[in-house]
Design goal:
Length: about 1300
């Protein structure tokens, strides 16, 4: 402990030394005499306790008694007990406080029962010290166990400890041996978190103050400061408050009273008042026994120079703080904490100030079990007899006995918007109200609550008339607009009331205080006398007049002077007098304007990096990333084998297409003896394994190597690198332009055919688009570098693909028209997707103008044994002239065998990917495929050595490390895919959705639900976007603990995901067998679907490109590219969000290294970025992420060197949302249909209504999205929008309050 010691001070009672009076000796250890001799030699002390008189920094003298752990573990023996008692006696003689620094293993067993008796011996000294009215403080250091913790360590007025200190009666070894018979595993399993730590004891109410763990002198100073603050309040003589503030006039009108205002979350609460008007507040935790409570809080404080004890009920202003405070409802440990604080106040003659704001005591099983009634009842008697002044302020709610439990003040003030009653108006209405039906109750209940509030006289003006309170703090003249963030007028009035009250009460003798308090509460009540007859000889008139005020009566009310009994006769007028509102306080002159600090350099890019560093979901700074530093660059040393040379070929696909067109290319493909390959690594492979998250900058890093391996090679047909989910993910999550990706890759790989996936009438979206938009999209894709368009429809509807086919043919590019494969034609039970089905479909595809047929096996359901019969059926349907291109997924682990079987069966082109991004839900390994054909000298070998792919293999392995958080988590293949049929491209995204929605542990249920939903929909082809519809509903049902049977029986009550509604409405087209009509009706409710067989595009009006261009030009204030127009038409919200993000965070975001983009920067780590905003090549170093400051803000500092110039400094203030926890908004009341809660956890995508708007049943209110799934919160009845709490972009949890309606 840091102290200032007079050089003349000496240690006290050094003559008292430990002695082996029992001649204790035991065979397995040295004798006690020997142990004492060693301890004395080691410490230079004669016992384990040192007694000194020291002076704190404040000048306060204190007797400090410290355990020396070096002397036999600081154990308590007879000498130690004697020195402790002498220390107490010395302190009493000199009227000094006592501090014991406890650090002990417990009583000393070598001194037998007499060591046990030292616990009692010291306890009587503690009792005598307490009678003398002197403070006693203990500091429990590490460790404090056994007889010390079970006696004087826990007998003090205030108990202080240090974080992580070990404190308890029975040590862990004793518990392990006695209760667990040395079963360490069982002990470990049942041991509570942080067991016997200071934090554990604080949580369980046994410590008042736990100081942070510091080192050396800092720790000593921290203890010293705490002792000084506590003793500053506890040590002192008689004190008298002085106030020059007159008592304000007290209006009495009840006009406009509304008890619900007391519940406003923005009102100043007790914790706000304590912080504002008290100084040197030392909060004391716990009831001193077994519990703690964050609703009732209190401690020692200074108020205008007056030492006092403060006790308050607190609520909190955010959901997390409200939850921590039991939503303002005290528990028994809270009342016992209040009792302990009041007793402490009485011991040291300190006035008690209490603040009341509670709807009532906590109504829970646990509270009743541990004695809620007893705790409140005990407090009432204690307050009745307390020999120090009690001043009470009712700040908000004064709910029943829960409020009275700390509210028996000698002087009581009440905020004018507060209430104080025996039961809440809602509780009274629930008991007394009588309603015909729910509709009548919904209408009448609020009216009854308001009437009962007035009838029960719960308002401040009424209670002042009844003598329950003394003063009203009026919330007028601007005070009604003050909030907890700033309330200078309110705090001024509260301060004035407390000061005036203390000025009245502190001179009053202790016995008179108790007597006055008796008179005050004894005189409360209005009653009749049996047998009293009124003037007309009937029942006497009610003592409460019709105006709600007391009729003429007499009752006792105590005064502030000497406890004299004064009788007040109240003769109110028949009508409550109107009282003028107090004159407004003069407006203070404005403070002189402060000069603004010089503006820091602006850089939106670095601001974005700062925010990602502090708040990022995978922040490297917070240890949430898969690695701490940047990844090493791709090195040649990583490839052990020399790469084979690849001679250029005279004929290759890109050259033939560009020079002779798609028809010639198709014929050329059919003439090849070898099978050709397509690499999907840049599109479907990373979509399947890494949730499509690989950024353009990383793809460009390997583009040169791809060009070396696949460029100008006959065996390399194409590179799939665009389309599908890569389009919207680029905008939505990567904040980059997909068209830029296409152009930059084209430039880097000029001699390879590029291939994309296009969803027919859905383009690269999840709905049908007008025909002109589809055609324009295909045209622009071709112009920007696309060669092969793999066109598919989610229901294999050729009509849905025709516009796209025609547009591709018009652009003279390859129309590869897909047949999506599903089912299992090898099984006799398969009645839908048979070989005949595929044969007929092949005929339709060729007739529609396909240059090639793509066989798209999204889930990897085709088995090797099915390859030959399927190829035979396709050839019969399509003829021999058209090439067939096979695509599959490796989910079942069978796909490599399948593509080899397809090649043997005459398939012209097969898809695969680089080995390190292959398998799982991705495609089979091209490396393995080529190795098999090369080694076997097969005529099908496409003459691309498998070893030539090794550098690419190393690259993709590095990418998977960098993007590991986006991995699907699938560690092996699973044949279960033949059951649930989840497409490989969807599998990883679906799992990411599961994780984001908290359903990861229920993945098996999700897979089963996917299967069940598919069957409910009629066993449809599952590929984007139909697969998304199945997945969305599966997740939705699992999250709500529902089944498909619930859809059938309770579907009319379910707000289905929008994707399910669109599917059933025919917005994506129709399966060839249609949808089950019963399911359609359940999901669509009153909505009519499109006619079956119709094409959605036929009913969609053409998009107006020029109108969109004009709107974008007005927004962006620049010329708009055709690709921007089409992007907005495909994804209006996503594209707008992208533009907003780039405007806020800089277009340079795409240039950031991916480790910085995803994980933020690391302290003192450098990264390089090309920045147009900063004007060149920039070397950036993150210098500091500051500590959390007020408002949960951190300062983040960078240095940046642009083009080698002088370093510039950038500092940003970033709000650390994680410090406050997610979603601090209110939750909807599930019992109140007017409170609309979020249907799921996610982000508010759109707010469709404004306050005051009228809505009809079924109208969309708010759209909530999570990982591309969107669900509408809709109105269930006609209503007026009373309040909108949802804001676009806000994170919400399931049940978060979005909108409040008012029925009409």
């Amino acid at each position: 402990m840091a102290t200032h010691v007079d050089p003349t001070e000496m240690e006290l009672f050094t003559e008292v030394v430990s002695q082996d009076f029992l001649n204790f000796n035991f065979r397995s250890s040295s004798s006690y005499a020997d142990q004492l001799e060693r301890a004395i030699a080691k410490t230079g002390q004669g016992s384990a306790v040192i007694v000194k008189v020291k002076t704190l920094k404040t000048g306060q003298e204190v007797v400090v008694m410290s355990h020396n752990f070096g002397f036999m573990g600081g154990s308590l023996g007879c000498a130690e007990g004697e020195k402790l008692v002498r220390g107490f006696e010395y302190a009493q003689k000199h009227k000094l406080p006592v501090v014991i620094m406890c650090k002990s293993g417990g009583a000393r067993m070598q001194e037998g029962t007499l060591s046990l008796m030292q616990m009692a011996k010291v306890s009587v000294a503690v009792g005598r010290h307490r009678e003398a009215g002197l403070p006693f403080i203990t500091v429990l250091l590490d460790p404090t166990y056994g007889g010390v913790s079970a006696s004087y360590a826990m007998q003090s007025d205030v108990r202080i400890s240090i974080q992580q200190a070990r404190i308890g009666f029975a040590g862990p070894a004793v518990i392990l041996n006695t209760m667990y018979e040395m079963d360490q595993a069982k002990y470990d399993a049942e041991c509570p978190p942080e067991f016997q730590s200071a934090q554990f004891l604080e949580k369980h109410g046994q410590l008042d103050v736990v100081l942070p763990l510091l080192k050396g002198e800092e720790m000593d100073d921290s203890i010293d400061d705490s002792l000084a603050n506590i003793l500053h309040v506890l040590m002192g003589g008689k004190q008298v408050a002085t106030s020059k503030t007159p008592s304000p006039e007290q209006p009495s009108s009840v006009s406009g009273q509304d008890y619900t205002k007391s519940r406003s979350i923005s009102r100043p609460q007790a914790q706000d008042v304590i912080t504002t008007i008290f100084s040197n507040f030392v909060e004391l935790e716990g009831d001193g026994r077994v519990g703690s409570d964050r609703c009732i809080r209190g401690g020692l404080a200074m108020f205008e120079g007056v030492r006092c004890v403060v006790v308050a009920t607190c609520k909190g202003h955010t959901p997390s703080k409200m939850k921590e405070a039991n939503y303002g409802m005290p528990s028994p440990p809270g009342y016992r904490k209040a009792l302990r604080l009041m007793q402490l106040a009485e011991r040291f003659s300190l006035p008690v100030v209490t603040f009341v704001d509670t709807c009532g005591a906590l109504p829970s099983f646990k509270a009743e079990e541990v004695g809620q009634s007893e705790a409140i009842a005990t407090n009432l008697v204690a307050m009745a007899m307390l020999k120090v002044p009690i001043v009470t302020v009712v700040l908000g709610e004064g709910g029943s006995g829960g409020a009275l439990g700390i509210g028996m003040g000698d002087r009581i003030a009440m905020m004018s918007s507060a209430y104080y009653g025996v039961i809440s108006p809602e509780g009274a209405a629930s008991i007394l109200g009588r309603y015909k039906d729910d509709a009548d109750k919904a209408k009448q209940f609020p009216v009854d609550c308001r009437e009962l509030a007035t009838a029960q006289h719960i308002y401040a003006s009424q209670l002042k008339e009844l003598g329950v309170i003394d003063e009203i703090i009026w919330e007028v003249d601007g005070k009604q607009d003050e909030t907890y963030k700033a309330f200078p007028l309110i705090q001024k009035d509260i301060r004035s009331f407390i000061l005036r009250s203390l000025e009245e009460l502190t001179p009053v003798a202790h016995d008179n205080l108790v007597s006055n308090r008796y008179d005050r509460f004894r005189g409360m009540g209005v009653f009749g006398t049996q047998g009293l007859v009124g003037a007309a000889g009937g029942v006497p008139e009610s003592p409460l007049g019709s105006n709600g005020c007391a009729s003429p009566l007499s009752y006792h009310k105590s005064t502030a002077s000497g406890g004299a009994k004064v009788v007040y006769d109240m003769e109110p007028s028949p009508v409550a007098p109107k009282v003028e509102a107090p004159a407004p306080a003069p407006t203070p002159a404005p403070a002189a304007a402060r000069p603004k600090p010089p503006a820091a350099p602006e850089c939106k890019l670095l601001k974005m990096v700062a925010e990602e560093t502090v708040c990022g979901e995978r922040s490297r700074h917070k240890g949430l990333s898969p690695f701490t530093g940047g990844l090493p660059p791709l090195a040649k040393e990583a490839v052990a084998t020399e790469l084979p040379a690849l001679p250029e070929c005279e004929e290759y696909a890109k050259k033939i297409l560009d020079e002779q067109g798609p028809e010639v290319l198709a014929k050329w493909v059919r003439k090849q003896k070898s099978v050709l390959i397509t690499d999907t690594s840049m599109r479907d492979a990373h979509q399947s394994l890494l949730a499509t998250r690989v950024r353009t900058t990383d793809l460009l890093d390997c583009a040169k190597e791809y060009s070396r391996v696949f460029g100008r090679q006959t065996g390399a047909f194409s590179m799939e690198c665009w389309g599908g989910a890569t389009f919207d993910v680029a905008y939505r999550f990567l904040h980059e332009c997909p068209w830029d990706r296409l152009r930059e890759l084209r430039k880097a790989m000029p001699d390879v055919c590029f291939q994309m996936l296009v969803r027919g009438a859905n383009a690269v979206g999840y709905k049908s688009y007008p025909d002109n938009t589809i055609a324009e999209f295909c045209k622009l894709a071709a112009e920007n570098g696309m060669d092969v368009f793999r066109i598919f429809d989610c229901f294999n509807d050729v009509a849905q693909m025709k516009v796209c086919i025609d547009a591709v043919r018009e652009a003279k590019k390859v129309a590869e028209v897909c047949i999506c494969f599903t089912g299992d034609f090898l099984r006799e039970e398969e009645k839908i997707y048979t070989l005949e089905y595929y044969k007929n479909l092949a005929k339709e595809v060729v007739a529609a103008g396909a240059h090639m047929i793509g066989l798209k096996d999204m889930a990897g359901l085709l088995k090797p044994s099915g390859a030959a019969p399927l190829m035979k059926a396709l050839r019969e349907g399509a003829g021999d002239e058209i090439p067939i291109h096979f695509h599959t997924h490796a989910t079942s682990s069978m796909s490599l065998a399948t593509i080899l079987a397809m090649a043997d069966a005459g398939c012209d082109i097969v898809d695969g990917c680089i080995a390190s991004i292959a398998d799982g839900t991705s495609q089979p390994s091209l490396n393995a495929f080529l190795a098999d054909l090369e080694t076997a000298s097969s005529p099908l070998y496409p003459k691309i050595p498998y070893l030539s792919l090794e550098r690419l293999d190393t690259f993709w392995a590095r990418i998977r490390t960098l993007y590991s958080p986006f991995e699907s988590g699938m560690l092996s293949g699973t044949a279960r895919v033949y059951d649930h049929q989840i497409p490989g491209g969807q599998y990883s995204n679906l799992l990411v959705q599961c994780k984001s929605m908290g359903l990861e542990a229920r993945w098996g249920e999700v897979c089963d639900m996917y299967r069940d939903v598919n069957k409910m929909f009629g066993d449809i082809v599952k590929v984007t976007p139909s697969s998304k519809c199945v997945g969305d509903l599966a997740l939705y049902l699992v999250q709500r603990q529902m089944t498909v049977e619930d859809v059938r029986t309770r579907g009319h009550l379910i707000d289905f995901p929008q994707s399910s509604i669109d599917l059933m409405a025919g917005a994506l087209g129709f399966p060839h067998r249609g949808f089950p009509e019963d399911i359609q009706k359940i999901i669509l409710k009153d909505m009519k679907p499109l006619p079956r067989g119709s094409r959605p595009g036929d009913s969609l009006p053409a998009d107006d490109f020029e109108k969109v261009r004009g709107n974008l030009k007005a927004k962006l204030q620049r010329d708009v590219e055709d690709t921007e127009v089409i992007s907005w038409l495909l994804y209006p919200k996503v594209f707008d969000d992208y533009l907003d993000y780039v405007a806020a965070s800089s277009v340079d975001v795409k240039e950031l290294p991916s480790d910085v983009f995803w994980y933020g920067a690391g302290i003192n780590e450098e990264f390089y970025v090309k920045s147009a905003e900063l004007g060149g090549d920039v070397k950036v170093t993150l210098k500091r992420v500051g500590p959390l400051t007020a408002g949960s803000v951190r300062e983040v500092s960078f240095t940046a060197v642009v083009n080698g110039s002088t370093p510039m400094s950038f500092t940003f203030k970033v709000k650390d949302d994680s410090a406050e926890g997610a979603n601090t908004g209110p939750m909807a009341d599930p019992e109140n249909p007017c409170e609309i809660g979020s249907p799921m956890s996610g982000t508010v995508e759109n707010v469709a209504v404004t306050e005051g708007a009228k809505v009809e049943k079924g109208d969309k209110l708010v759209v909530v999205g999570a990982m591309k799934m969107e669900v509408d919160a809709t109105a269930q009845f006609a209503a007026i929008v009373k309040k909108v709490l949802a804001t676009k972009g806000a994170k919400v949890e399931e049940g978060s309050l979005l909108v409040v309606l008012e029925k009409i």
